[in-house]
Write a structure and sequence with these properties.
Elements (H helix, E strand, L loop, with lengths): L10 H10 L10 H13 L21 E3 L5 E7 L5 E2 L12 E12 L13 E11 L12 E5 L2 E4 L13 E3 L4 E4 L11 E4 L4 E4 L10 E5 L4 E4 L13 E3 L4 E2 L14 E3 L20 E3 L6 E3 L19 E3 L11
Parallel strand pairs: 2-4, 3-4, 4-5, 5-6, 5-7, 6-8, 7-9, 8-10, 9-11, 10-12, 11-13, 12-14, 13-15, 14-16, 16-17, 18-19
Antiparallel strand pairs: 1-2
Length: 331
């Protein structure tokens, strides 16, 4: 069986899946693991999509079940099942699990089961597009997570500071929930780090430690964040995407030096002042937006600035010059 195509995931996550979820169909699956999988099927209400999950068959050949070369189940991928049930606690009874992916199941509800605390080998957990609710449990620190994706669910409450104790966590996406409170510092570790917390109800200032180290992506858009985030910027920073749009952030952009490798920058719908930074001329941005701020003065021209249309600058205090109307003598 081959790994499902997960085009929405970054390449390093695909690599993680391909090394985490391996299958040896010649080896019969562990009998206890098979019984647990049948229990998971029952707890989901025995959906028709899992009709092939049958007793006395090799569970390593079941659709979207992945095994080690010794027949232990180490990965489960469940998508678009027609269910109306809680998230199955029995998943926590598969001790060799390194990866769980559950997506596009709006009928799945309830909290993240405490049984997940037993999954000490778990490296990848995704629960997305469900009605799973409650808080993000601190007991996830008993796992070995490097990737945690809990997106477009009904989770609420604060982001647990304890998640910073996951020493291998480098990819965190909690977007599309109702999380509140401040962003804890020190959540990410290792190289090539990603922090996505968009479309929540987060408040307070962005912790300064997210300007340090090898961070590729920061998306904190559509929250209620305040303060000056300019410490995130700097020409030598390795970031490729920064999205801070739809917050209440405030700083003077005039002399900011943006990361040289940046390809995506959205600072729209904030309280940014000053002029459009000249450093933007050297950035080949596929997405750029500073609209709905308090910027003023003439827009820099030359190099890559020609690729940005008027919609990138709309609704500012007094911006002028190409691609907006020409400046008057006072600008």
């Amino acid at each position: 069986m081959t790994i499902p195509t997960l085009s929405f995931l970054p390449l390093f996550l695909l690599l993680l899946f391909s090394t985490t979820f391996t299958l040896s169909s010649s080896m019969d699956c562990n009998k206890i693991d098979r019984a647990v999988l049948l229990s998971i099927k029952q707890q989901l209400g025995s959906p028709s999509e899992l009709a092939a999950w049958l007793p006395a068959t090799n569970c390593c050949t079941w659709f979207n079940v992945y095994c080690t070369d010794t027949g232990r189940v180490n990965g489960v991928y469940l998508s678009s099942l027609n269910v109306s049930s809680p998230l199955p606690p029995a998943l926590g009874n598969l001790p060799e699990l390194t990866g769980i992916q559950i997506e596009i199941m709006p009928g799945l509800f309830g909290p993240i089961p405490t049984s997940f605390s037993k999954l000490s080998h778990l490296e990848y957990l995704e629960i997305s597009g469900t009605s799973v609710s409650g808080s993000i449990p601190a007991f996830l620190t008993r796992t070995n997570l490097g990737v945690l994706v809990l997106t477009n669910n009904k989770l609420s409450g604060p982001i647990p500071k304890a998640l910073g104790g996951l020493s291998n966590l480098r990819y965190l996406d909690l977007s599309g929930n109702s999380l509140s409170g401040s962003i804890p510092p020190g959540l990410l570790h290792q190289k090539s780090r990603f922090l996505m917390l968009s479309n929540n109800k987060l408040t307070g200032e962005i912790p300064r430690d997210y300007s340090n180290g090898d961070i590729d992506t920061i998306d904190l858009s559509h929250n209620r964040l305040t303060g000056n985030p300019s410490f995130l910027f700097g020409i030598t920073k390795p970031m490729t995407k920064i999205d801070l749009s739809w917050n209440e952030l405030e700083f003077d952009m005039t002399h900011v030096m943006f990361p040289f490798h940046l390809t995506y920058l959205d600072l729209s719908h904030n309280q940014i002042k000053g002029r459009v930074a000249k450093s933007l001329k050297d950035l080949k941005l596929s997405n750029f937006n500073v609209s709905y701020n308090e910027l003023c003065g003439e827009i820099p021209t030359g190099r890559y600035m020609a690729g940005h249309g008027a919609d990138c600058y709309l609704h500012n205090k007094c911006l002028c010059g190409t691609p907006l109307p020409p400046c008057s003598g006072g600008n």
